[in-house]
TrEMBL record:
UniProt name for this protein: Uncharacterized protein YjbI, contains pentapeptide repeats
Coiled coil: none
InterPro entries for the chain: 5peptide_repeat (IPR001646), PA_immunity-related (IPR052949)
Length: 211
């Protein structure tokens, strides 16, 4: 699956995230932000456009309704951040910490989560289209009643994740690890799994496998 990468110009000027804190319509675009700390804040309906953001901390901040387009995040900490009802397109999260992030009712398209921590994150009622999770931790992550279209989990830990009321048709989890998942048999139809995973699902369903 080909993911559209963020369309970023070269030689972006530097800015600070606090520059937009008191603006009526907070917006940052065509810039780079490095080593900024914006913890325990509230900045709803913010817009980020054509940016690189590196080594920043946003712990416990409310970014509900944020609009993100063409942004690269690297080594950022979003622990327990609220991004409810957000729109995120053509973005990359590399080596980021997104533990407990709330993406409920958000729309994500052309997104790549690479080598990132998403344990206990919530994607309930979210729409994910062309989203790739690779080499990432998603233990006990919640995808309740989400809509998937071309979503892959490559070499991830998805143990304990919930896909309740979420169709996994066309979703590839064949290279990922789990001991248990929360889902229904009907939602599993069309999901791409490995042979060992098929045996795991059979065991979870109470099927006795005889050599």
């Amino acid at each position: 699956m080909k993911i559209e990468s963020p369309n970023l110009p070269n030689d972006l000027p530097s800015r600070n995230f606090h520059d937009i804190f008191y603006e009526a319509d907070p917006e940052l675009e065509l810039c780079k932000i490095n080593d900024s700390i914006f913890d325990n804040g509230e900045l709803t309906r913010c817009r980020l456009y054509k940016m690189t953001i590196r080594n920043c901390k946003f712990n416990n901040t409310d970014f509900s309704n944020i609009d993100i387009t063409d942004v690269s995040f690297e080594n950022c900490d979003f622990s327990n951040v609220k991004m409810r009802m957000s729109s995120i397109h053509r973005a990359v999260f590399t080596n980021c910490k997104l533990i407990g992030v709330d993406f409920t009712e958000s729309k994500l398209g052309n997104i790549e989560f690479d080598n990132s921590l998403l344990n206990l994150a919530s994607f309930g009622n979210a729409k994910l289209e062309k989203v790739k999770f690779q080499y990432s931790q998603l233990e006990s992550t919640d995808f309740y009643d989400s809509r998937f279209k071309r979503v892959d989990f490559q070499s991830c830990n998805i143990n304990g994740a919930s896909f309740e009321k979420t169709s996994l048709k066309g979703t590839d989890i064949s290279t990922s690890y789990f001991e248990s998942l929360t889902l229904s048999l009907s939602d599993l139809k069309g999901c791409k799994v490995s042979t060992n995973q098929a045996i795991q699902f059979a065991a979870l369903l109470g099927v006795e496998i005889v050599d």
